[in-house]
């Protein structure tokens, strides 16, 4: 996460790949009482929140506590949207996040679904830079735009994806 916060896209991809299965298990455990089909939606909200708010992790403490707090808030939000009040204690963090992650069968499908909601050029840039870890310059050259244009398009695409995810709540 330190490297990701310094702009290393490949490190961020690796980080998300490693934590997604653990977060999925955490959401399933804490989201009991919610329809199981909402668990993946909550996971997507958590991953987007991690991307958008990763600068709020101060880097001094373990990242798992920060991740757990983000996930906990999204689970509570899901309960609230369904008209229920809930209190989720902050215990069992280490056990939940240290659990065997298992496979992440829907991650690629979810990314493809979200990227299908934006224009092709923007989706190609997001996939290249954010998911595959390419530099903005390399991705720009491959797509045929200047690096400055690529940064603007990428910024707007990430903003659009965040708006879409917010609307899907």
From TrEMBL:
<dbReference type="InterPro" id="IPR039425">
    <property type="entry name" value="RNA_pol_sigma-70-like"/>
</dbReference>
<dbReference type="InterPro" id="IPR007627">
    <property type="entry name" value="RNA_pol_sigma70_r2"/>
</dbReference>
<keyword id="KW-0804">Transcription</keyword>
<keyword id="KW-0731">Sigma factor</keyword>
<dbReference type="InterPro" id="IPR014284">
    <property type="entry name" value="RNA_pol_sigma-70_dom"/>
</dbReference>
<dbReference type="InterPro" id="IPR013325">
    <property type="entry name" value="RNA_pol_sigma_r2"/>
</dbReference>
<dbReference type="Pfam" id="PF04542">
    <property type="entry name" value="Sigma70_r2"/>
</dbReference>
<keyword id="KW-0238">DNA-binding</keyword>
<dbReference type="InterPro" id="IPR013249">
    <property type="entry name" value="RNA_pol_sigma70_r4_t2"/>
</dbReference>
<dbReference type="GO" id="GO:0003677">
    <property type="term" value="F:DNA binding"/>
</dbReference>
<dbReference type="InterPro" id="IPR036388">
    <property type="entry name" value="WH-like_DNA-bd_sf"/>
</dbReference>
<comment type="similarity">
    <text>Belongs to the sigma-70 factor family. ECF subfamily.</text>
</comment>
<dbReference type="GO" id="GO:0006352">
    <property type="term" value="P:DNA-templated transcription initiation"/>
</dbReference>
<dbReference type="InterPro" id="IPR013324">
    <property type="entry name" value="RNA_pol_sigma_r3/r4-like"/>
</dbReference>
<feature type="domain" description="RNA polymerase sigma factor 70 region 4 type 2">
    <location>
        <begin position="111"/>
        <end position="161"/>
    </location>
</feature>
<protein>
    <submittedName>
        <fullName>Sigma-70 family RNA polymerase sigma factor</fullName>
    </submittedName>
</protein>
<feature type="domain" description="RNA polymerase sigma-70 region 2">
    <location>
        <begin position="20"/>
        <end position="85"/>
    </location>
</feature>
<dbReference type="Pfam" id="PF08281">
    <property type="entry name" value="Sigma70_r4_2"/>
</dbReference>
<keyword id="KW-0805">Transcription regulation</keyword>
<dbReference type="GO" id="GO:0016987">
    <property type="term" value="F:sigma factor activity"/>
</dbReference>
């Amino acid at each position: 996460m330190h490297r990701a916060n310094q702009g290393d896209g490949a490190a961020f991809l690796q980080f998300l790949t490693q934590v997604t299965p653990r977060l999925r298990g955490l959401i399933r455990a804490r989201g009991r009482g919610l329809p199981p089909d909402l668990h993946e939606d909550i996971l997507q909200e958590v991953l987007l929140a991690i991307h958008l708010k990763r600068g709020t992790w101060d880097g001094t403490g373990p990242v798992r506590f920060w991740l757990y707090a983000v996930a906990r808030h999204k689970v509570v939000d899901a309960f609230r949207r369904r008209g229920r009040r809930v209190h989720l204690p902050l215990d069992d963090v280490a056990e939940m996040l240290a659990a065997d992650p298992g496979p992440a069968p829907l991650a690629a499908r979810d990314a493809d679904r979200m990227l299908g909601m934006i224009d092709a050029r923007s989706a190609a840039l997001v996939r290249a830079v954010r998911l595959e870890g390419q530099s903005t310059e390399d991705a720009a050259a491959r797509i045929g735009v200047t690096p400055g244009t690529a940064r603007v398009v990428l910024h707007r695409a990430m903003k659009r994806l965040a708006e879409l995810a917010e609307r899907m709540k």
